[in-house]
Amino acid sequence: MTWTVQPRSEARGISFIRVGTGSRLYLVHGVGLRAEAWMAQVSKLSATLHCRAFDLPGHGASRALPRPATLTQFTDRIAAAIDAPGVVAGHSMGAMIALDLAVRHPQLVQGVAALNAIYCRSPKAAEAVRRRAADLSTTELADPEATLTRWFADQDTAERRACRKWLTGVATEHYRTAYEVFAAENGPADADLARVTCPGLFMTGGSDPNSTPAMSEAMARIAPNARAVIVAGAAHMMQMTHAGKVNAALEGLIREATR
Fold it and tell me: Where does the source fall among the domains of life (predicted)?
């Protein structure tokens, strides 16, 4: 799998990769990344689906939001670029957006997949992410090696190199805008999860220290029509490192949501 820059379309200030025809699959990446983080899904699933992988506001070629921003603003910008109902899959902060879409824009969401999502962080984890947000410079990005090590351990792979390029390529102020939202949020409220009645998938890596299996399992118990899938040996970037398992789970969700 290569992770080269792909051609873009644009709607309402949101840029996206668009491939394939059929039922819609919308893909939303996490902080500091790009739509290309989903190419292992787009390249496989676009054989039978219309796939759209969005750039978050301020990422890729999407227009930025002013800082400070809110999760609602990020979600509503993505919602404005959705022109037909479909299954929405989000990763990390993108999972927050996907779930918020399912709660506040249910007419757009036939099914929802939350990959490596956070829920009720421990006090220690919440403090750590807030500290990382507070330490972000307004002028230059921090060295991403600590983040990359959490995601890929010590492996020097094409996926790691692609993520390094994306993390160091995003504008500093736009990264900070998104990361501050990510740090301020603590995952969906239980009452909101209970309102997600469409088919749901909560999926994370068994080795993800921050978006833990327990979090995905807890959310799946609350959402009325959801299941949890834990990928053994995977960490935070499992849509890149364990694409086959992620694709199979998404295909199952799509069949359920569109039957």
Answer: Bacteria
232: containing domain: 9-258
Asked if residue 253 is part of any domain, the answer here is yes
Q: What is the C-alpha to C-alpha distance for residues 259 and 257, in angstroms, rounded to an integer?
A: 6
Q: 2 lies in a domain?
A: no
Known active-site residue 225: no
Indicate which CATH number applies to the domain containing 25.
Answer: 3.40.50.1820
Sheet holding 226-231, edge to edge: 9-11, 14-19, 50-54, 24-28, 86-91, 109-115, 200-205, 226-231
| Residue among 15, 62, 116, 216 flagged as catalytic | 116
| 1 domain-assigned | no
What is the tally of structural domains in the chain?
1
Asked if 174 is an active-site residue, the reply is: no
80 domain residue, yes or no: yes
Choose, from 59, 91, 236, 242, the residue flagged as catalytic. Answer: 236
Per-residue pLDDT reduced to its tens digit, 47-101: 999 999 999 999 999 999 999 999 999 999 999 999 999 999 999 999 999 999 9
Rounded-to-10 torsion of CA 241, 245, 249, 251: 90
Distance CA(180)–CA(163), nearest Å, equals 20
Place of tokens 């790691």: 160
Query: Is 210 a residue of the active site?
Result: no
Mean pLDDT over residues 103-108, rounded?
99
Which is nearest to 115 in space by CA: 215, 224, 3?
215
